[in-house]
Amino acid sequence: MENNYYTEEEQYWCTGGRTGTLPDRITPSVINVLATNEIFVFGSNFKGQHIGGAAKIAKEKFNAVWGIGEGLQGQSYAIPTMEGLENIRSAVERFTSFAKQHKELKFLVTAIGCGIAGYTAEQIAPLFINAAFLENIYLPLNFWKIIINTADSREDIQNVTRNIIDICTYMHKYNCPKWRGDTDEIIFSRLERWHIWALGIQLGVISPTEKEPQTKTLPSELRDKILKELKLL
After folding, report:
1. Rounded to an integer, what distance in angstroms lies between the CA atom of residue 140 and that of residue 231?
2. Burial class of residue 86, CB neighbours in 10 A (0-12, 13-18, 19+)
3. pLDDT (tens digit, 9 = 90+) per residue, 61-100?
4. Residue 20 and residue 12: Cα distance in Å, rounded?
5. CA 226 – CA 196 distance, rounded (Å)
6. What is the C-alpha separation between 173 and 169, in angstroms, rounded?
7. Which residues contact 104 (CB under 8 A, 6 or more apart)?
8. What does the pLDDT look like over 139-162, one tens digit per residue?
């Protein structure tokens, strides 16, 4: 029986890279076999005509059902990609919700929409930013690279970090009694990695033109600098 195939770069990321901090939930370039709890996630169409690309593989190897264009079928999950980008966005949201409810399953997402549908990874990958936080979702390497580089620019993350700066500034200025000495640190420790990067930029610790490192967590020295600056507000 054929095994799944990982490129050398995919293998490097699967181990977390040199520092062990790269995202390691990588979908292999070629999927030939699945474990009993693994699901092959592929791009389809509303009519469920699994003719070519990953859809054909899903039908031939992983029990995708002809005529079903979305959802779980056998050891595969279809996401319709031929009916417009907004429809893909909604379908990805439904998929993410499904994966969140089925933590016993491991979802191997292929580069949906980037074949016959004609979209680029730059268009599709950002739709999976919320999915990227789920431990049972694996994404193609090119999706991860784009997510890492674009997640911090999302408006909601910018709003969160601005609010943190505003409240810390206020509490420090008026020496509010309920604001303990370690409150800043508690808030900081609960932030996502992309929030911390955006916070560093707004605090002036990181230059807006600086290229964000492709790591799952930021270096501890940088985190310490950002936290120190937050406490000085």
Report:
1. 38
2. exposed
3. 999 999 999 999 999 999 999 999 999 999 999 999 999 9
4. 10
5. 8
6. 6
7. 37
8. 999 999 888 776 555 666 777 888
